Amino acid sequence: MSWTDERVEKLKKLWAEGLSASQIAAQLGGVSRNAVIGKVHRLSLPGRAKAGGTAAPRAPKRQAPAPRAPSYNATSRPAAPRSAPRSVGATALRQDPDASIFEEIEIDRADNVVVPISRRLALTELSERTCKWPVGDPLKEDFHFCGNDSPENTPYCTYHARLAYQPTGERRRAASR
Prior knowledge:
Strand content: under 5%
Shape: elongated
Distance between the termini: 73 Å
């Protein structure tokens, strides 16, 4: 099917009369509803009011309050909720997120644990046998991975595996302090 000048004129006329894309497709024959919608957009035809309603402006919807940020620090009080500007639609993607909402986690390290010196590997230098523990901020130049030897079937060296995989009982004790 091709869009001839006659069919385009008929499409414009039916669109101006307020017919739906499905109704226009049925009258034109040989085209789908999506083909009609695509042609309407390519022709930049003006939009129409929604069927069954008036063009009166509506009152803006009431927005829910901003969600409360969770606190991950078991030794301090919960973080106070912060009010953040709310927006509607795709403009929410344009906001800069507030990275200071979350508190830093305090980890109790045993005195007899030796922290290994990292080999400072980049992502492309990692292998199956290297520790993949990230060190630093990924947006900074000095970001790297630990890179020490890791035991078979684990992504981390023995030190970072102890940090990542804590038994349930220890986590509960740390949370109750």
